[in-house]
Amino acid sequence: MASHRRPKQPSRARVTVLTTAAAAAVALSSQAANAAPSEKPSKDEVKAKVDKLYEEAEQATEKYNGAKEKQEKLQKEISTIQDNVARGQEEVNELRDGLGSMATAQYRSGGIDPSVQLFLSADPDDYLDKASTLDQLSSQQVEALKKIQEKQRELAQERAEASDKLKDLASTRTELGKKKKEVQAKLAEAQKLLNTLTAAEKAALAAEEERASRSSEARVDLGNTDAAPGRAMAAFQAAQSKIGSPYVYGASGPSSFDCSGLTSWAFAQAGVAIPRISQDQANAGTRIYSQSDLKVGDLVIFYGDLHHVGFYAGNGQVLHAPRTGTVVRYESINNMPYQFGVRI
Hints:
The chain is α+β, with helices and mostly antiparallel strands. 61% of the residues lie in helices and 8% in strands. A six-stranded antiparallel β-sheet has the order 1-6-2-3-4-5. A hairpin with an 8-residue loop joins strand 4 (317-320) and strand 5. The longest helix has 66 residues, at 43-108. The N and C termini lie far apart (116 Å).
């Protein structure tokens, strides 16, 4: 006979768990359905991010340039010290040879002084400190010993200085390598962003830059040609001859430039030596804080940390090497945060 037993009801705890799980599943499904797909950044957004990366790369570039300049300076100083040490050692050797000749003459005339004989194979400092030894030497020999002692002290100081500079050079080279990697990383990141643009978007950005450059050039042609004194105009004209040359970080001409590379190269063509990096160029002349007082050929310093520099070109325009991916060109002075001008 069939069983008429009622089916077992699920426990209240089990119902609660199942209900909660079902509610969570519905909520997740709803969130997934309502989530907007990630949008590709616009051309202008990409440009803003790329410009920021290029600015950071240029900051690192100027630090790279500073480390490179320091490395070159240290290498020259070390080379000079090493040359001085080599010449000094030759002088010591000549003095020793002279003292040896005196000792030989003494021997031939009746025997070599024991103190001189001992000196020829040892350090003279031990003997100069002993009055009894000095009493046994001729005045000529004493003078020769003193000269040797003095020269040896000079050589010891120069060798210590060279050692310190070699350590400094090693740390500078390490810093140079770090800054180079930092620049390269920023440029690679910027290129990665640019690669997300379509060909049409890239063409549009290039066209915008070209229009801005032509507009700036037209303003320069119509602008004030009142030149800064000295050789500033000659330097500016040298920079003008490089319009269209590519920006390359760390480059200082003659075929490619970074910002301070262009300005230092141009002044060199005018026979004026100015520092290599923008922060040092900012202190190379008289500062001009009002844009209305700028003259053609003045340097113009940008950004709070002074990491960018160009030439004032007149009528509110600058001539500079802007950043990676561009060339030496004219641009509005208002495109960057102006700090002050510098009249060399």
